[in-house]
Amino acid sequence: MTQYIEAVGRRKESTARVRVYPGSGTFTVNDKPLTDYFPRTGDAPAILNAIEATGQSASAFDVTVKVQGGGVSGQRDAVKLGLARALVSADESVRPALRAEGLLTRDARVKERKKPGLKRARKAPTYTKR
Fold this sequence. Notes:
Helix 2 packs parallel to helix 3. It contains 4 helices and 5 strands. A 5-stranded mixed beta sheet has the order 1-2-5-3-4. The chain is α+β, with helices and mostly antiparallel strands. The radius of gyration is 18 Å and the shape is elongated. Helix content is 31%, strand content 22%. The chain has one domain (5-100): Ribosomal Protein S5, domain 2, CATH 3.30.230.10. It has helices at residues 34-37, 43-53, 72-90, 95-100; strands at residues 5-11, 14-22, 27-29, 32-33, 61-68.
């Protein structure tokens, strides 16, 4: 088996383990092709933006991803961050290009916990005078 670069990306409740191999351009997520796992219109281009920002072709790499937890957008952003981190591990010279696109910044926003006496994190019950 060929040598690979591995990186982890996280977003909300999602975690993605991304492995980048030199290869022919196959991109699999949980043993499915990228466009089958992320069928929404903008998801696959958003993920592949990390490779395009480096000025390289997507066909220069084989990428396998194991992603779990969270929903569709959280998983998409976790894969995007993991791929960007893996590309930087492979070649440090692409860091400024990925940083300029904002692809190396971990989005730390997570769901706020529910508070006692409230319906959700901040929504209060309807006030009734009588």
